[in-house]
Write a structure and sequence with these properties.
It is a single chain. This protein is mainly α and about 290 residues long. It contains 13 helices and two strands; from the N terminus they run ααααααααββααααα. It has a two-stranded antiparallel sheet. The chain starts with 5 loop residues before the first helix and ends in a 13-residue tail after the last helix.
Length: about 290
């Protein structure tokens, strides 16, 4: 690595920029990088407070600084910092977009998140408290809904592994992310069907309800049900067939599909409230 000599160290920044533009001399470029490193770092610090390590952001900003030095043309009359700032900030935004975000979101939304984080850090220092959504919206010239959308996007910038340890809220125990992910509750499929069947049940006699409960809750055969309620297996078959038909008509359901699963759950819930204690029900009783 070349070491800048006394001439480079004593020359002014404008002179060094003109010299490098003409000669592309490595020691001159290194001296320019050294002088403008604090400027690049100050731009990187705009994004501090997020999940990305500040050292990584400074390295990205330094890369943008080198690119700006190599592309700068002093003959155009622009100030170097005015030219370099968009280049460095562009590298930082590209870093967030390509390296930090695990989920691809629209570019405009990503940039809004970065502006939001910078504004939140700045306002927290000024106000000595976290800013409100309204204060952030006023500072950035956004609608409050846009600020809230950016907050939600910031939460999903990184994905989590299912086996990543997490603390279970409200307990001293630790679990994993996968243990906190919900699964499909197939019971929801039968909510409407159960409601419809419940509405149709008052049209059944007590004997029919008992027979259905014994069949679908206790899984008894028709002969066993007959012994429990005091009638023949043939009569039990007629009772079940008539009860199911009335439920079909009253609930407008395809009980050929639902009776083994959903009816069983329905009568299990009902049995908790009203159990058949084994006393015979007269065949001709209601």
């Amino acid at each position: 690595m070349s070491v800048p000599g006394p001439a480079e160290q004593l020359a002014g920044e404008k002179e060094l920029l003109r010299r490098f533009s003409r000669t592309r001399d490595t020691p001159v470029k290194e001296e320019l990088v050294r002088r403008f490193l604090p400027f690049a770092r100050s731009l990187a610090l705009r994004y501090r407070g997020g999940t990305e390590p500040i050292d990584d952001l400074v390295q990205v900003a330094n890369l943008g600084l080198v690119q700006a030095i190599e592309r700068f043309d002093p003959e155009r009359g622009a100030a170097f910092k005015s030219f370099a700032a968009p280049t460095i900030l562009g590298e930082l935004k590209r870093h967030f977009r390509d390296r930090v975000w695990n989920l691809r979101l629209p570019r405009g939304l990503q940039e809004r998140v970065l502006k939001l984080e910078g504004a939140a850090t700045e306002l927290t220092g000024k106000l000595e408290r976290p800013p409100t959504v309204r204060e952030l919206a006023e500072t950035l010239g956004l609608e409050e809904t846009e600020v809230l959308e950016a907050f939600e996007a910031a939460q999903i910038r990184r994905t989590l592994a299912f086996d990543q340890p997490v603390t279970v809220v409200g307990t001293p125990d630790e679990g994993t992310v996968g243990e906190q992910v919900g699964s499909d509750d197939h019971h929801y499929e039968g909510v409407e069907d159960r409601a419809a069947v419940e509405a149709a049940l008052p049209g059944l006699t007590e004997r029919e309800v008992v027979a259905l409960s014994l069949r679908f809750v206790e899984d008894l055969t028709q002969s066993q049900i007959g012994e429990r309620i005091g009638c023949s297996q043939v009569h039990v078959s007629r009772i079940l067939r008539g009860a199911l038909q009335r439920l079909r008509d009253g609930a407008d359901l395809d009980l050929e599909v639902t009776e083994q699963g959903r009816l069983k759950r329905l009568f299990q819930n009902r049995a908790r409230r009203r159990r058949y204690r084994g006393r015979p029900v007269p065949v001709n009783g209601a």
